[in-house]
Amino acid sequence: MEPVVLGAGGMVLVDPLFQRALVNVVRRSQHLFSPEFIGHPSGDGNDWTGLPVIFDEVFTGLYRLGRFTASSFLGLDADVSVHAKLLTGGLVPLCTTLASESIFRTFSSDDKTDALLHGHSYTAHPVGCQVALESLHQMQDMESSGRWAPFQSSWVGGTGDEGGKQQDGAAGNNNRAERGCWSIWSPQTVDWLSHRPSVAGVWALGSVLSIHLESPGGAGYTSTAAVALRDALRATNHGPSQNPWNLHSRVLGNVLYLMGSQTTGQEVVLEIEQLLRQHLS
C-alpha cells in the first residue's frame, strides 16, 4: 500500500479517508483472517493485529509530498515501511525496509528457518548508508530552518476561484498549509490548469504536480494524450529568464507529472509554470 498516492495508472491520488478506514478495518477485524495470520497483542500496545500493514513510501516518503512520511497524512504508523529514492537523493542506489519491534523479533532466532534470508546487492553498503544519513540530515535541516516556508505560505487560505474541474490533493482546501498540505506548485497555477479544456484533472502535493489530460481514445497506459505536452516542454531550450533549460517530465498514459527537487527554488518553479501556460491550451 502506497499511502496517499498510487503509482499504477498514472499517480492516482487515493482518498486518505478511505485508506485510513481500510487500515482500521484490517487491524480491528481479526475474524476476517485465518487464525495463523492473526497478530496477538503483546500488551505493550505496539503489536500488530489482523494483518500487518505495509506502506510503500519509496516514492511518497521523505518529504516528496511535503512531509517526512506520507503515512502521517493518514494519522497512522506502518507495521512495515519501505523507503528509497530521496533516501540518497538518487546519488547511489539504496533501499531500506523498516519494521515494528514485534515484527522484527519474529525473525530473531538461532534457527536459520526463522531468518529473513532475502537480501539484495546493495544491502547496507557503507557508502550508500553514509549518503543516506547526510541526505536525511540535510532534509531535516531544511524543514527546521523553514526552507520551504515561502511555498507553504502561498497555500494558506483559498485560491480565490476554486470552481473549476476536479482539483485533488492540496488544491481546493482552505488553510491547507496550516493542516500540513502544501506544494511547491502555486495554487494559482493549479487553479489555472483545472480550467483548461484539455485538462481532466490536476493535483499538487509537495514537490509533485500531476496533470491528467483529456483523452478521447480512453485513459490509461496506452493513451498518448500527454506526449505532445511532454515533447513541447523538452524542446524548450530557454525559459522566460533566457536561462538554458533541460526540462524533463514523465508521462504515464494520459498523465504528465513534474517533480521539483527538495532544493528547487521559487524562481525555477515559476518559470516552469510559465512554460506550462505557454504550451498547454
From TrEMBL:
Keywords carried by this UniProt record: Aminotransferase, Transferase
GO MF annotation terms: transaminase activity
Main location: mitochondrion
Domain of life: Eukaryota
Region (Disordered) residue spans: 156-175
Record keyword Transferase present: yes
Subcellular location: Mitochondrion
Protein name (database record): Bifunctional dethiobiotin synthetase/adenosylmethionine-8-amino-7-oxononanoate aminotransferase
UniProt feature coiled coil, ranges: none
Record SUPFAM superfamilies: PLP-dependent transferases (SSF53383)
Keyword RNA-binding part of the UniProt annotation: no
